[in-house]
Design a protein that fits this description.
Length: about 260
């Protein structure tokens, strides 16, 4: 019986020794080896690389215990020099471990080609949004006589009309020819005095002119709804698209005694 107890005691002592050794090894691994292997507690702040030429990057990053990795993709910004950094990952100011790779995207050396959108018959405001969405720049705006006010009549690239779908470099400047809303047809201003206001409006629009303000004038001698004044006056030379204002009679209320 005593021999069995002694045997169990020895086994227990050996197990405790094994557990102790195992605990020591774990402590050395997690407290000494692993932190040393992973540079635990040592970090580097990622610098801002935007605008750097790619040839400057490798030495610049190496001096800060970082490595360079140029991504195969590239972007294009027309006002930035070719082969300069457009964006990076991780972002500037990020804390990373030493020897970490910094991925950068460069500005393309040549602008990519894009298809010219159709801007003709498009309002100027919409045309500017379309150009921006396609990575194009709105250039000079030239106004010409046309009844369509602020409507694009022509789109030009380097002084020549450019059709929809034509390939041009991204970032190109597009000049626009736009209508001034007046037109170039000369006509004589019709006489509207004495007309019904509805009839006068039909005549204004039918003549290629634009309906302006309708002003009401109190009167007790002219039938209600009759044009009593117009501006511009009758007989004046007008361009299509010009505005015409009229004054219309409105009967005054009479007070009975």
């Amino acid at each position: 019986m005593s021999e069995l107890k002694n045997g169990l005691k020895k086994v227990g002592i050996h197990l405790l020794m094994i557990l102790g050794i195992f605990f020591v090894l774990l402590t050395v691994f997690f407290k000494v080896y692993l932190p040393s292997y992973t540079n635990h507690g040592e970090s580097v702040t990622v610098p801002d690389l935007e605008g750097y030429h790619y040839k400057e990057l490798e030495a610049y990053l190496k001096a800060r215990d970082l490595r360079l990795e140029i991504t195969p993709d590239s972007g294009f910004v027309s006002d930035m020099k070719p082969l300069h950094v457009l964006k990076q990952n991780p972002k500037p100011g990020t804390k990373v471990k030493q020897n970490r790779k910094i991925y950068v995207t460069l500005n393309a050396q040549n602008a990519p080609l894009i298809n010219m959108p159709n801007l003709v018959n498009t309002p100027l405001k919409n045309a500017q949004e379309i150009l921006a969405n396609h990575g194009l720049i709105r250039g000079e705006i030239v106004y010409v006589p046309d009844i369509g006010i602020n409507v694009v009549l022509e789109q030009k690239y380097r002084g020549r009309n450019i059709r929809e779908g034509f390939e041009i470099p991204k970032g190109s400047q597009i000049d626009l020819v736009v209508g001034d809303g007046l037109g170039n047809q000369i006509l004589e201003m019709p006489n509207l005095i004495g007309m019904d206001d509805v009839e006068a409006e039909f005549l204004i629009l039918g003549s290629g002119l634009r309906m302006g303000n309708i002003n009401y004038v109190p009167t007790d001698s002219v039938p209600k709804g009759t044009v009593v004044r117009q501006l511009p006056p009758a007989g004046l030379d007008m361009k299509t698209g010009e505005q015409v204002d009229i004054w219309v009679s409105e009967l005054e209320e009479t007070i009975a005694f």
